Amino acid sequence: MKLLVVCLGNICRSPMGEGALRARIAQARLDNWVSxxxxxxxxxxxxxxxxxxxxxxxxxxxxxxxxxxxxxLQPADFHDFDHILCADRSNLDNARALAPAGLQERxxxxxxxxxxxxxxxxxxxxxxxxxxxxxxxxxxxxxARGTVQRLTRNHESGIIQP
Length: 162
Ligand code: 4NP
Fold this sequence. Notes:
By secondary structure, the protein is α/β, with parallel strands linked by helices. It has a single domain (about 1-155), classed as Response regulator (Rossmann fold). Helices cover about 40% and strands about 10% of the residues. Strand 1 (about 1-5), helix 1 (about 15-25) and strand 2 (about 35-40) form a beta-alpha-beta unit. It is globular, with a radius of gyration of 14 Å. The mean pLDDT is about 95.
């Protein structure tokens, strides 16, 4: 099972999402079965480390994302990943515009897909403050916990095979 978290720049929401998801997957001992990556719909920050505020926020929650580097989403990612988990509606629209024929449905809005109620989108904290990054972390971690629940449920029922 391969999961890709996607936002616009791949320096704020999706690296935090990748870090939170890796941590929750390891905690659930699913890390032999599930792999996680992240990407941006833009290439503006390709090769860059995450935003320092995102690194600091993740560190406050016990997760080190300082080694991640930005990369741009590519059409081939639709072949390589089972689910492409988008932070907001515009990320979803931009991702699906890249999808090879028949693979559009692999891109989804992460929060509703993970069963998180309330917000449908993870707001972009890039122009915000530390409190906005904390709000984003709370949402990506809720999505990460919901993802583990969803995978565990489907795994146990045999719908998804390793
Ligand atoms: P992200 O945030 O999509 O959560 O990584 C952004 C990062 C950079 C920019 C916009 C959003 N930017 O305009 O460079």
